[in-house]
Specification:
The chain has 236 residues and is an alpha/beta fold. It has nine helices and six strands, in the order βαααααβαβαβαββα. A six-stranded parallel beta sheet has the order 3-2-1-4-5-6, with helices on both faces.
Length: 236
């Protein structure tokens, strides 16, 4: 069973379908949105490339790695590979990332208060990440925030990575919401493009890119501090 189809007991979607005035869901990317992991992904990718005697420029990382699934960018480094070879290399890279990031694990500023605010206002929330299941479990469990999300989608839940809208269309469906009633929060250019293509409102967070680098979005934030329901409602 796909991880996104497993809902969290007391936070079951049915509990969010009654007695609420706000009809929307918030769809979170994970890396760079829930936790500012990208500096550590960059370090782990550089170390991964060094071990395999491959050079990867900053431009390559920004354009071909961030926001994309491993099975898309790893062949760009190594050329034609079998599925098993890609999976083995991806597992190596992600294990390296988790080892490097574990001592530094923390949420983006204001995230915990924002999640609590969503829950108190009965606004649904989902994670839609290009990362593998192991990373989603590592970060959400490590931050003790899994209970805030009614659905979690990861790289194994999609055929096509961002900027294709598949993951956000599926995340909205998992919350039983129309994409038009959902807000995507993204830090990557590919992720912003995916949210727009899905028909969602998009908030860009500047943990990875500068505001001017993004396609047009409804709102740009540096972090979640002070972000409340009124600002979300004004996106429509």
């Amino acid at each position: 069973m796909a991880f996104w189809a497993i809902f969290q007991g007391k936070n079951d979607i049915a509990n969010f379908s009654i007695n609420r005035a706000i009809f929307m869901g918030v769809l979170f990317d994970m890396d760079g949105v829930i936790a500012d992991t990208n500096p550590f992904h960059k370090i782990s990718i550089q170390e991964f490339c060094r071990r395999h005697q491959i050079e990867a420029s900053d431009d390559f990382l920004r354009e071909k790695v961030y926001g994309r699934v491993n099975r898309e960018w790893i062949p760009n480094l190594f050329g034609k590979l079998s599925i098993t070879e890609v999976e083995t290399l991806a597992a190596e890279k992600e294990q390296l990332f988790r080892e490097l990031y574990a001592p530094h694990l923390k949420p983006v500023e204001g995230l915990l208060d924002f999640l609590q605010m969503l829950q108190e206002n009965k606004i649904k929330a989902a994670v839609a990440t290009s990362a593998p299941f192991e990373n989603a479990e590592f970060i959400l469990s490590g931050l003790e925030i899994s209970h805030y999300f009614q659905a979690v989608l990861h790289s194994a839940d999609v055929e096509q990575g961002k900027p294709h809208p598949e993951i956000y269309l599926k995340a909205a469906a998992a919350l039983n919401e129309s994409p038009a009633n959902c807000i995507v929060i993204e830090d990557s250019i590919a992720g912003v493009q995916a949210g727009r293509a899905a028909g969602c409102k998009v908030i860009a967070i500047t943990t990875t890119h500068q505001a001017e680098e993004f396609d047009p979005v409804e709102k740009v934030i540096a972090d979640f501090a002070g972000l409340g329901v009124e600002q979300l409602e004004k996106l429509w």
